[in-house]
Every structure is written in C-alpha cells, then in structure tokens.
Fold this sequence. Notes:
The chain has 15 helices and 14 strands. By secondary structure, the protein is of the alpha/beta class. It has a seven-stranded mixed sheet, with helices on both faces. A four-stranded mixed sheet has the order 1-2-3-13. Strands 11-12-14 form a three-stranded antiparallel sheet, covered by helices on one side. The longest helix is centred in the last third of the chain and has 23 residues, at 339-361.
Amino acid sequence: MGDEANPQTHSPHVNPSGTRPRSHAAFHQALQVIPGGVNSPVRAYGSVGGQPPFITRGAGGHIWDVDGNEYIDHVCSWGPLILGHVDPDVRAAVEAALHNGFSFGAPTEQETVLARLIVDAVPSIEKIRLVSSGTEATMSAIRLARGYTQRDTVVKFEGCYHGHVDALLVDAGSGAATLGRPSSAGIPQDFVEHTAVLPYNDVDALESLFETRGENIACVIVEPVAGNMGVIPPTDGFLQRLRSLTHEYSSLLVFDEVITGFRLARGGAQERFGIRPDLTTLGKTIGGGFPVGAYGGTAEIMDHVAPDGEVYQAGTLSGNPIAVTAGLATLKKLFETDGYSRLESLAERLATGLKKAAEHSGVATTHARVGSMLCMFFSSGPVNNFADASRSDTGRFERYHQGMLKRGIYLAPSQFEATFVSTAHTEEDIDRTIQAAEESLKEIR
Ligand code: KE4
C-alpha cells in the first residue's frame, strides 16, 4: 500500500463494516440547521439509500470522509476538478493570490486574462461575462436571448438541467429528475408558459415546434452532450438541425457547456461536433473548484449586456480574483500538459472495463461515453432521451452504488448523473474501480 500523502499509489481503504458513525452523527447535526442536511439536493442519498459520507479532504483522485474511509472519487465535485483534488500548481497560484486580496468588486487584469483564454479557445465566443455559477450563466443567457430577439419563448429538452432557473426548472434533469419532481414548487405558471420542452434528440418534434412557434422562439438551450439524465450523446444530425432551424427562424442557439466546456476539448463540445452556437454557458472546470460561471457569444450579441446594452446582469463576486486565479491555473495546466489525451485514455480504460464487468455479470446495462464523461445505465437500452433513461432500473443502481461505496468507489448518488475522471486518476485507480464494479455487479445480478 502506498503512503496516504501520495494517493496515486494508494488503494482506497474503507471500514469493512461499511458503517460511517461520524458521518451519521454529522448528518444528524446538519439536518438540524440545513434543509435535507445538504446544500444541494443531489448530495443527499435519498435515491440510493443510506446517508452521505461527510468529506474531510481530497488529494489527486481520492477523497476521505470523517470516519477515515478513503474513496476513489468519480464525482470530482460534479465536474470542476478536472485536475483532481488540490492540484499543487493550482494550490500554489491560489495561495499566492490570497496574499493580494480576497475580493475587490473592481476590475482586475486577471479577469481579462481568463476572458481572453476562453475567447481564444472557443471560436464562437468573442466576448464573455464572468459570473459565479452555472445557474447564473444560463439565467443570464436566456435573458440576453430574450432581450436581443425581443421574443419570449425558450425551448429546452426533457432531462436537460441548466441550473435552478425558474424558467428552466421544467422537466429538468439532475436532482430534479432524481427527486422525481420534474418541476419545482414555487414557480408561478406564467413563469413557464414561455418554456417549451421537447424530447432530447427528437428532430421531428423540433421541426414541428418551429413550424408552429418559430417566430416567437428567442432561443433553444441545450446540453450538447446531456450529462444530467445520465450521459446521452446527441444522435447524428440533432445538433446540426438545431443549428439550421435556429438560423432559419432567427432564434439563438445556446449551448449549455457548464459540464462539457473545457472538459470534452479545449473548445468544448462545440469543437468536437463542429457547431457554432450563438451563446455558450460555462462553469465548473473554468473555476477549478472555485465558484465561476460564464456566458459568452458574438460581440454583436454580448454588446447588448449592461452596462453597454439594455440587458441587465450583475454580481458582487463575479470575476472574483481567487476563483479566477484557480480557473486560470487549472486551464493553463490542462492545456500545457495535454490533459485531454490523459483524460481520454483513462476514460476509455474505465468505460471498456465497466462494459466487460457488466457483460461478465449478465446485468442488463447500456453504456455511454463522450470524452471523460461516462455513464452506465441499468437498462437494456437504447438510451437516447429522458424517457429511455427513466426506464433504467434505479433500484438496481441503488444496490450497485452501495456496493461500490463499500468498496471505496465514490460515484454520484443518482442514475441521472455523469461519472468523471480527472488527470490525477491513475491506471491503478481505474482498475480498482473496474474490479469493484465486477464484484458489485455480481452481487446484484
Ligand atoms: P451550478 O449553478 O450548479 O454551478 O450549475 C448549474 C448547471 C448548469 N448547466 C449544467 C449542464 C449543469 O450540469 C449544471 C449543474 N450540474 C449539477 C449536477 N449535474 C451540479 C450539482 C448540483 O446541483 O449540486
């Protein structure tokens, strides 16, 4: 067994009893003062039984909980930690930045450096506004689309999740899907009457909607690779048709790349699929684990954003110098170390191993992978949209999740999420995850 300080050579150690008394006590305390004991619903373990481990620290591809259990982490903070936990170069950059100040509420040159890096990496983005979360990014992008087109209707896809924006929390994925409450209380009906929802990958439905309502459609917002109903890639022609129809009706195409941006490629999913959206939303990876979101597009559209334009959007901590420093250090290291080759190699190794493990077990599964985001559906498939994904055996996923957790593998507590790898994961980590899957799948067949 390697030393704990160097998780790269350390197999995870989990209390064989599977009990987590200190997490249990911590959860009890949290429940007294935090709704559901968590600060984001997807972190609860409602859909996988049991209670969430309370995490104390991370290093590389590993995390530890308050009971001393060690896990190989395939959540990666839901995507941001593309270099793994506490990357030494990112940490050094943040520590240095802390000495200069935490926040100014004034422009800093580093914000321009990050904006320039994003503009140079994503051809469809000529100008970008930094915010503090993916939700702020998508909320702002649809407001901009409505202001720019002077139309009201927004189109989204069932099972896609774009943050907890009132107008977009309709048939949403991620936690909303997991909770089985596809919308949310507290959203007045007239807030969503301008939101049209279509099945993902359904070109016919798209065309008929545009035929009937195209003149009123401000934008279509889409995850170019869906990552909130499990992972569902776009079928051939879907994104291309989206692009041609939005052009034809002068609607804006918004790529929500909060997950895929800088994860799937330097230029995100739009680089992989060769599509130029009008607006792109970003988050997660561009903050390297610190709160950063962004929305950007052509200068012609973005110049409608205040203070130059009539579409208002603001934020106290937008472009926060510490978060921007972490994001810059993350992206620079990802580019300089050719992180995408490593991500591709690790993700392919994992996906291949999980497929073999499932075949050996005889459990019916369907597998999806795009770059370093992947998913194993407990379904015989095919899985091309939310209705397909919803037919997954979530009870079997629950038992699988429990089996993986007790073997030291930390997965998202929902069938409707993505599995991630980081550049800090090792081949040994991947092989351990595959081995754990072999054992867990055999247990539940
Ligand atoms: P945030 O507001 O959580 O930073 O980003 C919202 C968002 C927007 N767009 C996409 C495609 C997203 O996936 C997200 C957030 N993703 C979820 C899980 N898939 C974050 C986890 C959580 O809600 O706690």
